[in-house]
Specification:
The protein has about 350 residues and is mainly α. The chain has helices at about 1-20, 25-35, 50-60, 70-95, 145-165, 170-200, 205-225, 230-255, 255-285, 295-300, 310-335. Helix content is about 65%, strand content about 0%. It is an enzyme of class 1 (oxidoreductase).
Length: about 350
């Protein structure tokens, strides 16, 4: 009896395969995937053949063609909702990178004085200040020693190619000047930092003072970039000049810090002269007195209706302060003392 049932089932299976083949390759593939002969085994000990209900249950439980259950529908819906929420959060955040919260380094919400959200990442409200415009712009360190004369003549020689290249394009000149002026403070602060680590000694606050100078000069550059859009060859010139100047100044500071600071003091004197000429062109109408960039208004705490003239005025005052700091540092070295023995002018922009 079992043999007859087995033969009958095999005949029905063969006819099903033939009919599926007539329906196309897709039907054949579906049937073959679902058909596993091992299931169709009959026990010789008097058991009955596979029932129709068990056959349907087996065919419906094939992994590739299994119908979705309510549990899978819910999980898929939840994953879609999560991805949609992430997309909406990313849109709200803008282009800002969203990182996992378990690093615990996210910045708290920072507000301006008027209660609005602080919009700058490059500097904070406590980094802002009102420039001291009462500083004497006409001060000049008269070169007396040999090193002073070397520094003075070197700076005067460097001004010649700058005048030839930029002429009276003071916006571009200022942009180039700031890319160079931001280097000495960083180099000096870095070398003093390493010296403090090697010798286990305090720096007298000079590390912070020089790094403040470098940051202030960098903010000058960020402001000038908003006003002057540099061309490709000007960008290439900046890369070249910065690469050469950084290495030369690094070696110079290692060899003679007093000469290095004196050079920067004279560079700042030239910067004051250049910004004074810039202001003259603005006042004469040769350069349009446009509205001040928003970054400058917030950084120097300028009035909301500030103009380019106001920005150049505060930048020139900053350069005068840097002039004093570097000439002062050089004088300390010329007296045979270390910088840590003199109080550092922290916060003296």
């Amino acid at each position: 009896m079992n043999r007859l049932l087995t033969r009958s089932l095999l005949i029905r299976t063969s006819s099903a395969v033939i009919s599926a083949a007539k329906g196309g390759e897709k039907s054949v593939g579906k049937f073959i995937v679902g058909f596993q002969p091992d299931v169709f085994q009959f026990q010789r000990q008097g058991t009955a053949a596979l029932s129709v209900t068990e056959w349907r249950r087996y065919m419906s439980s094939t992994p590739e063609y299994k119908k979705s259950t309510p549990a899978t529908d819910v999980s898929e819906r939840e994953s879609k909702e999560k991805s949609t929420a992430v997309d909406e959060k990313t849109k709200k955040e803008g282009n800002r990178a969203v990182v996992p919260s378990y690093w615990a380094v996210s910045r708290p919400e920072i507000t301006a004085d008027d209660g609005t959200k602080w919009r700058w990442n490059c500097f904070m409200p406590w980094d802002t200040y009102e420039a001291d415009l009462s500083i004497d712009l006409s001060k000049h360190h008269k070169p007396t020693t040999l090193l002073d004369k070397i520094a003075y003549r070197t700076v005067k020689l460097l001004r010649i190619p700058t005048d030839i290249f930029f002429r009276r394009r003071y916006g571009c000149r200022a942009m180039m000047l700031e890319t160079v002026a931001a280097v000495p403070g960083m180099v000096g602060g870095m070398l003093l930092h390493l010296k403090s680590l090697r010798r286990f000694e305090q720096s007298g606050g000079w590390i912070k003072a020089l790094l403040e100078e470098a940051e202030n000069e960098r903010m000058h550059l960020m402001t000038m970039v908003e006003l002057v859009k540099p061309k490709w060859y000007e960008r290439l010139l900046v890369i070249t000049v910065q690469g050469v100047f950084f290495n030369v100044y690094f070696v110079l500071y290692l060899m003679s810090p007093k000469l290095a600071h004196r050079v920067v003091g004279y560079l700042e004197e030239e910067a004051i002269h250049s910004y004074t000429e810039y202001l003259k062109d603005i006042e004469s109408g040769a350069i349009e007195n446009v509205r001040a960039p928003a970054i400058a208004i917030d950084y120097w705490r300028l009035p909301k209706d500030a103009t380019l003239k106001d920005v150049i005025t505060v930048i020139r005052a900053d350069e005068a302060h840097h002039r004093d700091v570097n000439h002062f540092a050089s004088d300390v070295h010329f007296q045979g003392k270390k910088l840590k023995e003199a109080p550092a002018p922290i916060g003296y922009h």
